[in-house]
TrEMBL record:
GO terms for molecular function: 2-amino-4-hydroxy-6-hydroxymethyldihydropteridine diphosphokinase activity; ATP binding; kinase activity. Pfam families: HPPK. Transmembrane segments: none annotated. It comes from Wohlfahrtiimonas chitiniclastica SH04. Keywords: ATP-binding, Folate biosynthesis, Kinase, Nucleotide-binding, Transferase. GO terms for biological process: folic acid biosynthetic process; tetrahydrofolate biosynthetic process. PROSITE patterns: HPPK. This is 2-amino-4-hydroxy-6-hydroxymethyldihydropteridine pyrophosphokinase. It is an enzyme of class 2 (transferase). Belongs to the HPPK family. The keyword 4Fe-4S does not apply.
Amino acid sequence: MHSLSTTYIALGANLENPVAQLTTALEEIAQLPNTSIIQCSKFYRTKPIGPKQPDIINAVIALQTALSPYELLHALQAIELKHGRTRTVRFGARTLDLDVLLYEDWVNDDSALIVPHPRMHERNFVLIPLYEIAPDLILPQGAIADLIARNDPEDYVIPLDL
């Protein structure tokens, strides 16, 4: 068994009861072998990127896992498929989106998996929930609070009262 690694995962959904999609996905992620959720942000309502579509519900979780980065990616993709995820329109509406943001200090750039996530520093819908659970984390582009301040304030990220 591998030693446990800390990884951060972004969750998003805007179709078919997004809050229920994220809640169920969290339960399914918690059932992955040798994996536990150690922190979960609030859920946030955010402005979508791309074509006109409903607002997205986003969250970020911290995991401890013995799965390798690719094992984790494949497990997350299987959960997306179980939720009816299709990839027909770039940045289109989705039942569930699970993205590996960080995996320890591992760096990778291939067609299957780019870590750290290449655009997370530009996206407050990722940075604000990430800051909530890991305020001291420093990304390659800088401190999370500084990155949030640099991004477009029109890209609202509103916590949900659940």
